[in-house]
Every structure is written in structure tokens, then in C-alpha cells.
Amino acid sequence: MRIALALALACAFVAQAVHAARRAQLHAAIAYHAQSANVGWATDRTSSREARVEALRQCAHPKCEVVATVKAGCVALARDAKRHRAEKGVTREEAEAKALRRCGTGCEIAAWTCTR
Length: 116
What we know:
Layout: H1 2-24, E1 27-33, E2 38-45, H2 48-59, E3 65-71, E4 74-79, E5 84-89, H3 92-103, E6 108-114
Antiparallel strand pairs: 1-2, 1-3, 4-5, 4-6
């Protein structure tokens, strides 16, 4: 009984460590085109390049640009008619609050993404 419990605890610990290591390796990105207001994002990609390419693909405008990338965290894009700002955070709430604060009055969240 003790051996089974010890094995179960060890397996849970290993699974948690693997999940944490995997999360530290994941990338996300947001792409944006201000004139059309097109937005695209990618989450949980294995490389920064893969996240950027997917965000641009989803943005679906030839002049979209990647405005933010993040590894193991969150990013949010705030915008209004004249300006935009993307900011990173540990949580969605933190990224959104930073983006709204730095974008200014009248801005709203256009997109956010977090790695697992």
C-alpha cells in the first residue's frame, strides 16, 4: 500500500514538472493592422517564429504586423481609433490592465492570449 502511494505521488510530481517545463517552452503572439482593425493571435506554439506566422495568418491582411510575442505568459492588445498598445503580463488580467493603462482613455481590449 505504501509503495503504491509513493509511486502515485512520484508520478504526479513528475507529471507536474513536465507540464511546467513544457509551459516554459511555449510561445504566443498577436498581430494587428490598425487601418482595417484586423487582429490575429497564436497560442501555445513551440517556437516564436511559429507563433508569429500563425498570428499573421489569422490577422488576414497583407500589412498586418506582429505587435507582441511572449514566452510562458500572457499578452494583450488595447486599441482605440488612433492608437494601440500591446503589453505582457504573468496573467491575462495583468496584461490587459497594462495595455489599457498605457494605451490611454477610450481604449479597449482587442485581443489577448496566454500560454498554458
